[in-house]
Amino acid sequence: MHIAVTGNIGAGKTTLTTMLAKHYNWEAQFEDVDHNPYLEDFYKDMSQWSFALQIYFLGSRFRQVKEIRESGKSVIQDRTIYEDAYIFAENLNEMDLLSERDFKNYNSVFNLMKSFVSAPDLLIYLRAEIPTLVKQIAKRGRDYEAEMSIDYLQKLNKKYDKWINNYSEGKLLVIDVNDLDFVSNPEDFGFILERIDAELNGLF
Ligand SMILES: Nc1ncnc2c1ncn2[C@@H]1O[C@H](COP(=O)(O)OP(=O)(O)O)[C@@H](O)[C@H]1O
Ligand SMILES: Nc1ncnc2c1ncn2[C@H]1C[C@H](O)[C@@H](COP(=O)(O)O)O1
């Protein structure tokens, strides 16, 4: 079984993925952030590093998909390969931070990879408004994310909502996390578990 947690930067994906992996005894697959060779440079100069970063994330995400498929285990994944292409790369192109030529090149690789990728059995979307995202990004405190603009987060949020509204590849659970503190409030975590259990029952 393949479960994936999706959502904008700071929505709580890594935190929830960790908690769910522990609760259900699933294996967790996390994003390649701490050892990512481009991320810090990307935030300093998006235009210069966007293509290199997108190719890096694409490769790393495809490796995860391959591992999930080959493992035969129940795996929960922190962010999907679709988000790299449909949210981040597309947005960078629209912001003129990823050239037409590089975006075309990127998409031809992504489309090739996509034919080998199966959608997760369950996609959990953590929907968060900008103030929630800003608060949680600050709480996490990565130096290179400190200057992230509201405009960038807003554009990504719009893309997420559009993508999720049209998502039909598999089961989808949308959780509004604006008023949920699943980190320190067991009732809020319980509410999320109830909703996931209902979806999982429908899978088998
Ligand atoms: N619903 C929540 N309530 C309280 N704190 C949260 C919530 N979701 C995330 N956080 C906190 O916000 C920060 C960012 O969360 P994180 O899981 O790293 O987000 P993401 O992986 O989506 O970027 C972490 O410090 C986390 O503990
Ligand atoms: N495909 C991507 N393009 C640009 N930036 C990306 C991409 N995937 C992840 N990121 C960034 C956003 C955050 O700064 C870190 C970690 O993501 P998070 O949503 O906080 O887990 O990587």
UniProtKB/TrEMBL annotation:
Domain annotation Deoxynucleoside kinase: ranges: 3-197
Domain of life the protein comes from: Bacteria
Ligand binding (ATP): 7-15, 180-182
DNA repair as UniProt keyword: no
Entries under CDD domains matching the protein: dNK (cd01673)
UniProt GO molecular function: ATP binding; deoxynucleoside kinase activity
Active-site residue list: 78
Protein name from the UniProt record: Deoxyadenosine/deoxycytidine kinase
Natural source organism: Halpernia frigidisoli
Classification lineage: Bacteria, Pseudomonadati, Bacteroidota, Flavobacteriia, Flavobacteriales
